[in-house]
Amino acid sequence: MADGQWSSHAKRWVTGLALAVPLVLLLAYGPLWLWTVVVTAAALVGLWEYETMIQRPALTRWELVFSLAVGAVFPLAAWIHGVAGLGVSAVAAVFATWAKQLAHPPLNRDALQRALISLSGWLYVAMPTSFVLLLGALPHGREWVFFVLFVIVFGDVGAYYTGKTMGRRKLYEAVSPKKTVEGALGGLMASAVMGTAFGITFLRDTGASVPALLMVSILTELVAQAGDLMESLLKRMAGCKDSSALLPGHGGLLDRLDSLLFAFPTVWMYAQGLN
């Protein structure tokens, strides 16, 4: 491995570990209100990256502040009122979009397109991120959140090293040139095995069967890979390599959240059905 490649790889591991230690402590021992603070902060950073990546250079300070203010409502509503609060937040975001346009002309097609970009950002970043709180509030919620992270982390590791050693066929070269079919399959296998093992060890009291845990592990990794590709598509269309330079070796926070955005709602849908 070249020195530059090793340096980048080392940065990824160092940054990942620096984030992982406080995150694990928070998820294991932190109260749900503290989760809400961290989730809200993550949603706001993700929204900031999304807005600046897609709407630059036309994005005004007022538009950014408005986008972040509405985005902050989603995790707060999820913490206070659960899934009902999250649903009402989505409706309120649509109303806020049109109220903003009425209050701040001009009323033209460009303004409409930019308003819809902000609306999609709330539904793409703030709303899915808030499902961490819905999942954490369930019985055995902490274990389910760790399950998601376990599946995603081992999926990423499996995909990376399988792709490096065995990758031949491009998965979707126009969107993400480095991803391979072999890497995707390696990640899927790693997630299936490790997710099921985690579930057998920590989630048997929930009533989840081994076949169900295997199915959920596979499905979680599939939607995680879809989320990864979707963010790569957004960056490709916006002409950006990374969503920001916030995290050394990783790019932006949204580059780390992309796999989780669809994974948490997927696991929540299954886990809440067990209760």
UniProtKB/TrEMBL annotation:
<keyword id="KW-1003">Cell membrane</keyword>
<dbReference type="InterPro" id="IPR000374">
    <property type="entry name" value="PC_trans"/>
</dbReference>
<dbReference type="Pfam" id="PF01148">
    <property type="entry name" value="CTP_transf_1"/>
</dbReference>
<keyword id="KW-0548">Nucleotidyltransferase</keyword>
<comment type="pathway">
    <text>Phospholipid metabolism; CDP-diacylglycerol biosynthesis; CDP-diacylglycerol from sn-glycerol 3-phosphate: step 3/3.</text>
</comment>
<comment type="pathway">
    <text>Lipid metabolism.</text>
</comment>
<dbReference type="GO" id="GO:0016024">
    <property type="term" value="P:CDP-diacylglycerol biosynthetic process"/>
</dbReference>
<keyword id="KW-1133">Transmembrane helix</keyword>
<feature type="transmembrane region" description="Helical">
    <location>
        <begin position="144"/>
        <end position="163"/>
    </location>
</feature>
<keyword id="KW-0808">Transferase</keyword>
<keyword id="KW-0812">Transmembrane</keyword>
<keyword id="KW-0444">Lipid biosynthesis</keyword>
<dbReference type="GO" id="GO:0004605">
    <property type="term" value="F:phosphatidate cytidylyltransferase activity"/>
</dbReference>
<keyword id="KW-0443">Lipid metabolism</keyword>
<keyword id="KW-1208">Phospholipid metabolism</keyword>
<dbReference type="GO" id="GO:0005886">
    <property type="term" value="C:plasma membrane"/>
</dbReference>
<keyword id="KW-0594">Phospholipid biosynthesis</keyword>
<comment type="similarity">
    <text>Belongs to the CDS family.</text>
</comment>
<protein>
    <recommendedName>
        <fullName>Phosphatidate cytidylyltransferase</fullName>
        <ecNumber>2.7.7.41</ecNumber>
    </recommendedName>
</protein>
<feature type="transmembrane region" description="Helical">
    <location>
        <begin position="184"/>
        <end position="203"/>
    </location>
</feature>
<keyword id="KW-0472">Membrane</keyword>
<feature type="transmembrane region" description="Helical">
    <location>
        <begin position="115"/>
        <end position="138"/>
    </location>
</feature>
